[in-house]
Amino acid sequence: MLKAPFHTSKPSPTRWFYRIYTLVYTIAIFALVYHHCCNLIHSPSFTTIFLLIADLVLAFLWATWQAFFLNPVFRQVFPENLAQVAKENEYPGLDLFICTADPFKEPPIGVVNTVLSVLAYDYPSEKLSIYLSDDGGSQLTLFAFMEAAKFARHWLPYCKKYNLMDRSPEVYFGSNPSFFPETSEIQEMYKNMRATVKKVIDRGTIDLDQMNCDRTIKAFSKWTPGFTRHDHPAVIEILLKNNVDKDVMGHYMPNLFYVSREKNRGTPHHFKAGALNTLIRVSGVMTNAPIFLSLDCDMYSNDPNTPLRMLCHFLDPNVDPKLAFVQFPQRFHNINKNDTYGAEHVLETRACTVGMDGLGGTFFMGTGGFFRRKVLIENPKESQKIWNEPIQSKDVSTLAHHVASCTYEDNTKWGQEIGFRYGTLVEDIYTSFRLQCLGWKSVTCNPTRAAFLGNMPIALNDILAQNNRWYMGMLQTGLSKFSPMTYGIKFMNPLQALCYAHYHFRAFWSIPVIIYALVPQFTLVNASSIFPKVSDPWFPLYVFLFIGAYAKDFLDYVMNGSTFKRWWNRQRIWLILGCSSYPFSIVDWLLTSLGMSTFEFNVTSKVSDSEISKRYEEGVFEFGVESPLLLSVNIVAVLNLFAFSIGIKHVLINAGTFEELFVQLFITGFAVLNSWPLYEGMILRSDKGKMPPKTTLKSVCVVLVIYLAFF
Ligand SMILES: O=c1ccn([C@@H]2O[C@H](COP(=O)(O)OP(=O)(O)O[C@H]3O[C@H](CO)[C@@H](O)[C@H](O)[C@H]3O)[C@@H](O)[C@H]2O)c(=O)[nH]1
Ligand SMILES: [Mn+2]
What we know:
The chain has 711 residues and is an alpha/beta fold. It is built from 25 helices and 12 strands.
């Protein structure tokens, strides 16, 4: 029995409020559906059918969203109590997986910082191994890591000596650190390393003549002339060896491996899921730690004690034997003051994770998840590791290259029943869904000081493209035989399945958004009323439904520590996504299902232009590029402005129509209010991030054509 607990959990006191709210709102939805049905019987028309469809989809998404709030559980961990069961040298081994895919979109110096931040974890170094997966197959990345390994010899002892919290050198030196005797020397080394790496990246090649070490030359000799990122043999390099490499203070260092799996054009590589599965196998051969962490290359560690927090769950003698992973929700370092694009995902990363925790476990977010290895492999007892040989031996190397080959997975269950699951662009959420259907559990750990901090796009089009990818990925599995609504409801807690369903079908939010962005507007131009007028007994129901949904959403935001402006921006981005990324995901899904297109994981760019960053800091929308995603949003904005002006004209000419057209005017006015940054981008701005004039022109033309065709 433990004297003091490692972790505690308590149900949220707000759950009763949410349960009552859900009940009341559900009754209101039924009343609305009844009202629609009456309308359909008495005055059937396309408009009534459209509105019914829109409201049914809204009701479905609302209902699935409520599942997150019915039984939230808050957990706390107490790493200081760990000493009761384990001394440091009894901690389990830990393999850390970091994925990168493109040296130009993900600058290696950023990846180096992520790696250094975890290499310097407060964890016994003989238990720690870092594996970098390079899907870009780039010698530039390998070069950067060779430099990083040299710098780590100075950086690690420095972090530990002064017990730094920020162990990403870029963050540390950028934050006016306190001055210790070695500080300026280390800073100088860091700057030199950064400059060396940058020079090589800018030049685009490695100058082998300048290398004076045979091993290094041998490593780079694998980049033969036929070597491309899509076609190359596996490259596995040991950059730091535990028990061999020491830092400048004479302490052994963790292992550091560079892994670029074999690629050839004819073999599908399954994007990040494929990369992670390769790492599971390569690490199985090399170190075979019972726990591994999956981390994106842009998510540096913000707290060196994170592994201990994770151990509070895994080392608990009363741990649920079905506990598969501990998820540290994603948090970001580059969000501006009012979170212009709602990229912080306040509810998804806070309320939703604790919400699912009370239902059997949260989903895996792709990064910040510590897994038990045995959960993702076939037969944990059959270890691949060659125990009696050191990791640098020939046999180990041959086996590691073998498991990183393209053909290794042929006729195996990898990606289907073991490892990270294939067949979708959102391998993370899908894998956790499949695991939880098998009875595995997960827990959320969200300490006040973020465990990891990542990067979000800061240009609107990048945000839209990222969402397009996510929700296309969700549909791939949401509409497969592993749908949460069929398979999920059968094999997991049904409320947990509803939570998954919410994410998987979020793209359908575009149906009501598009209907509400067009139908009330078209009818407003004609001055024909489609909603109850203000004095109608049904009118208060509409008011209740609107305010009930918006006010609750706002409350959730504030209760999760956010602000009014951030909430406002998030609800705006919801409307924008509803007429861009979401419908595009549905179209993409249709085209891929019909075999008319293939899907691709477009890596988000982590490079930021200083002008764009400046505008983002000021909270100004970044349009700048011409893209179908932006065009569709802009068309809707122009159309609503146009319809609103005509609506106002009607009311001014005949004040009697105000009461009848009120709801339509309100919806259109609300859209206009939300579209304000787009009008600014079209008319008032002259900077490079303004709406491209061609996009404005096209939008106006489309709206004119619609007007001439229909009115
Ligand atoms: O073929 C690929 C493609 C991507 N990646 C890596 O995957 C990570 C995530 O890619 P990113 O472009 O940053 O995508 P995001 O949309 O920011 O990522 C979110 O969504 C992804 C699923 O779409 C999850 O995998 C991520 O963990 C989650 O942070 C990065 O480290 C990439 O290097 C690979 O290793 N191989
Ligand atoms: Mn990312």
